[in-house]
Amino acid sequence: MTASKLKSLRIAVTGGTSGLGLALVRRLAAGGAAVAFVARSENAVASVAKATGACGIVGDVARKDDIHPLALQILGALGGIDALVNNASSLGPTPLAPLADTRLEELEQALAVNLIGPFGLTKALFGALAASAREGRGAVVINISSDAAVNAYPDWGAYGASKAALRHVTAIWGKEAKADGVAFLSLDPGDMDTPLHALAIPDADPASLKPPDVAAAEIVEAMLAALPAFQTHFAEPQR
């Protein structure tokens, strides 16, 4: 059922060449959705695009000057947009460090990738998302969050603060966008076996972590549940 419903959707994913983003691109493209994904590495983008058939776009959501070109390329590739998944993330300092040892530039990087980038790209695509909602297709923005957004974990200050801000922005924008028919979800996929998690906790046992494809499947179901045409087929996602 999920795959058959995906065939009508136009979806953009940031951070689409690694971890959860890559799992999402693979699952969405395999299901027949029109997918455009964004990442910084030209070689990685080309490789994933070739393997999945999705449209790869090279760019950095943390760069203000990249935002509008990225939005134009996404809309040009998809002809509109029904769902945006802001997945690209930065830990800030690596290895993780207490706030007292975090450089200002490291905090700025975490905020640029985890908060400012999603805000800018969502703003640039909001008109197209609202147009999709007016057409009866529905529209949803999914911002990938973390339990670090609500729990004060030592050494996770830059990441946690940026994800907490993103979570709150998501909640506010969700209320403001109701009249436009655009849904906003902040979803925590849990601890996953991804390169980002390995960078944060190098000695973590991969067997204790969620496979990215499992998390991707959960996010796709939440996405479909948030779109009016599919709400009869899926349970309400946990917030």
Show the helix and strand layout.
Elements: H1 2-6, E1 10-14, H2 19-30, E2 34-39, H3 42-52, E3 55-58, H4 64-78, E4 83-86, H5 104-134, E5 139-144, H6 157-176, E6 182-187, H7 195-200, H8 212-226
Parallel strand pairs: 1-2, 1-4, 2-3, 4-5, 5-6
Describe this protein's structure.
The chain has 239 residues and is an alpha/beta fold. 48% of the residues lie in helices and 13% in strands. The chain has helices at 2-6, 19-30, 42-52, 64-78, 104-134, 157-176, 195-200, 212-226; strands at 10-14, 34-39, 55-58, 83-86, 139-144, 182-187. The chain has a six-stranded parallel β-sheet, with helices on both faces. The longest helix has 31 residues, at 104-134. Residues 232-239 have low confidence and may be disordered.
Question: What is this structure, in a nutshell?
Answer:
With 239 residues, this protein is of the alpha/beta class. Helices cover 48% and strands 13% of the residues.
